[in-house]
Amino acid sequence: MSTSGSPLRTNSARAGKSSGRLSLAKPFLVGTILICCALSVAFFLARRSQGDEPFPKPADSIIGTKSAPTAKGWSRGNPAAKTVLIEFADFQCGSCGRASVVVGELIKKHGEELLVVFKHFPLEVVHRNALIASQAAEAAGRQYKFWEMYELLFKHQAEWANVPDAQTFFLNYAAELQMDLEKFQRDLWDSELRDKIYKDVLEGQVAQVTQTPTFFLNGARMPTTKSEAEFEQLITDAIRKAK
Amino acid sequence: MSHRALFGCILASLAFVGIIDSGYVAINSLMHFIVPCGIAKGCEEVLNSPYARIRGISIAWGGVAFYISMMFAGIFAAYGFGRILRLTLPIAVLAFAFTLYLFYLQAFVILAFCDYCLLSALLVTLSLAIHLVTRAWKKAS
Predict the structure, then answer these.
(1) How would you classify residue B42: left for phi > 0, otherwise alpha for psi between -120 and 50, otherwise beta?
(2) Binary contact (B28, A54; C-beta < 8 A)
(3) What is the pTM of this model?
(4) What is the least distance, in Å, from the CA of B141 to any CA of chain A?
(5) Residue B131's CATH number
(6) Which structural domain range is residue B51 located in?
(7) Which of A12, A52, A60, A77 has the most CB atoms in a 10 Å sphere around its CB?
(8) What is the ipTM of this complex?
(9) What does the pLDDT look like over B109-118, one tens digit per residue?
């Protein structure tokens, strides 16, 4: 009896333990499945939101080369300055608009000791009118009014940022700048200008630019600063060192 | 269905949405994707600000960890292990305090709001509310 009763008790104890494990295992399993489902949805949405390739894909041979951008492009300040600030910006990006004001102030203060080079980096995936705005600036550049258009685009960014017919606004700005409107309109859709913009984008991609604005000071990528004052300070320090 | 099971289900549902929300931002930042911003103005400023990362890691991962804990808390509560909500209450309180800090940063420092962060703030607040309601309900009964 004793030999047959003991295994029974053991069995029942084992059964009790295993049922306790089961009751804990079930919610754990359900929770894990739900978490996996939610993360899969998040991953799917992240992939889908990228849509098509936003920019022309750089050739495999140059991916990861991480070279510093060149100082070629639209520039302001002293071309012989020792301190060179390169800006990758998107005309539809709010931070770029604010940065343009700070950079403008820096040019006013240190124009003789600083060269600022502008590079296009339109984030087409998230900013529907960024590319056409870049083209408007380039088209204005063909009439020697790049910087004037640059200022107007940033100044009136809220007007054209999310409208389906941004080019109407750009035409108005061109008229305000007393440009040849026919030529401007033709240039606005010129594939040569688009290629020029994509060259900047490619340069940005090679330099590992992933957000706008991104600044390179004397070839080195600037850290994200917490304030405009801190940004200004970094540039002022570089100018002082270069003297 | 007991009230605890019901609250557990609600908490798990909130956590499900929360994992998608913060997971989406975290995965985007990990893969260097650009997060499309919608309703709130200045979303990209918030997500690109230095406050969005701690030592290079997106704080959205912290959100994912929080919602995973809330998911388990909710599911376990729904299965009758309601006591787990006592353990997760301090986590919910801490997350709420951090949410308030992030809200302050958006409103007064960055001067811009991000939709994903606002949704997360709402979910964290509701998660804390569920904990408090469950506690009050238990005391009352």
Answers:
(1) left
(2) no
(3) 0.60
(4) 25
(5) 1.20.1440.130
(6) 3-140
(7) A77
(8) 0.87
(9) 877 888 899 9
